Amino acid sequence: MASSNNLCLSNKNISREYCSMVTASNHEKSKNIVRKELLNAESSKICMSMIDALQNLVVDYHFQEEITMALTRQCRAIVESSGRDDNGTLDLYDVSLCFRLLRQQGYHVSADVFNKFIDKDGKFKVSSTKEDVRGMLSLYEAADYGIEGEDSLENVKVVILKQLHTSLITMEHDLAKLVEYTLECPSQKRLPRFMTKQYMELYEKIGRKNDVLLEFAKMDFNIVQALHKKELEQFVRWWKDLGLAEEMEFARNQPLKWYTWSMATLSERFSEERIELTKPIALIYMMDDIFDVYGTLDELLLFAQTINMWDLKEMEHMPDKMKKFCRALFETTETISLNVFKEHGWNPLDSLRNAWTSLCNAFLVEAKWFASGHVPGTKDYLKNAIISTGVHVVFVHIFFLIGESITKQTLQLMDQIPSQVYIVATILRLWDDMGSAKDENQEGNDGSYIKCYMKENNNSTMESARQHVLEMISNSWKQLNRECLSANNPFSPSFTNALFNAARMVSLMYNYDENQQLPTLEKLIQSTIFESIPL
Known about the structure:
Elements: H1 24-39, H2 44-56, H3 64-80, H4 92-105, H5 130-143, H6 151-167, H7 173-184, H8 192-203, H9 211-242, H10 244-247, H11 255-265, H12 271-294, H13 297-309, H14 320-344, H15 349-372, H16 378-388, H17 391-402, H18 408-416, H19 419-432, H20 449-456, H21 462-484, H22 493-509, H23 519-530
Helix pairs in contact: 1-9, 2-3, 2-4, 3-4, 4-5, 5-6, 5-7, 8-23, 9-11, 9-12, 11-12, 12-14, 12-15, 12-17, 13-15, 15-16, 15-17, 16-19, 17-22, 19-21, 19-22, 20-21
């Protein structure tokens, strides 16, 4: 970054304080109480609301087995009975919440469960009365888990959005806050770890307060926050020892931003994996800058040849800065591969090398386009630009670092870029090319889908082109739901969750203001990593 903001970690002292007021025994005692309350929930509605709260408070990772049991036993029963509760009546809130929780968990639940709420004209029976607001909000969030072809769910979002905005002015304060929170960051697009504090404030006011759960969530937040600080400190130490920042002064030096990707993507139990994942993320940014702002085309051809051969002997005629990067890339990749082999018994070196080679070659294609002044068609541009996001490189590393569901089938899929990863990369690329996503003063040789689209469609305006891209992003989310929430998804829940989290992170990471800064993300990072919660 050009300016010294919170995402550009210079000599910031990272505290190692481990929330001394929180003892392990208090934390464990509260956790056991919460577990009992979940298992002994008196009704399906209480159970579902508690699971929803656990997820929003980001302590659900402690209770995965119990949550799976509860969803199977109680929520599925509600869906199969078309949403009828103990009195035989229909409850829009319960059915919508159950639908969302089950789809999140990987159950294939038909949207037909909502048929009882649809009138003869095919429209949802919803109102803006106070009693129905939570049902509407629950349905609004459930609709985000729709897949292609479930048009009724997509259409109802527009209706609900209009009704809620109209009635906001007359709502009581706490309910209005809940509506604003949900509309601003619905469940499917929300990164709970960044929103935990805001949800805690709401949780204390919206009539579902559970003192033990809230206290446990606060303790857990501080414990995990201390862990994040420690992880960040370890990565910064590695980054400084690597020496690339001093050698490649033209490139971005944003260790906090790079770590934020890992923190947001991998769940709480993957501490060492977050540190290791941040290393290739940093190198992706550096390689991008080598192509965009540093190398000549001749130098980049030599650079790409070295990466493809994966041989330091090919570096003879390259600039020293490129040589140093190649050494760092090779050594880091080989070290990660060795550690994965020791931990999981698989050697990922060939897969990692192939991913880096594909990324480098995609960058080279873009460099050749720029050097020749060629503006490709949208299909050619997007096909290459999806690879040049680096998303595939990141997820190949995630796949091997977490070491779950590694089979011949999933190995083959990862080498070919599975559709799930391809979709996440599409979302990132399209957000990146929306126009406001130009990184901090990096005046490089980037392409743009918008530019390609407007050239291909002579009558298109900037506004219509952006609207087209927004529709593509919306459709990509539906495709991601279909691929990741399907019973045939071959990847582990942890890997699938990482896919969703990466897609959720995109809109925060590329939401630049007029000063090319990320004020929203900076505020969330400050709150999440550096400001603990008083107990």
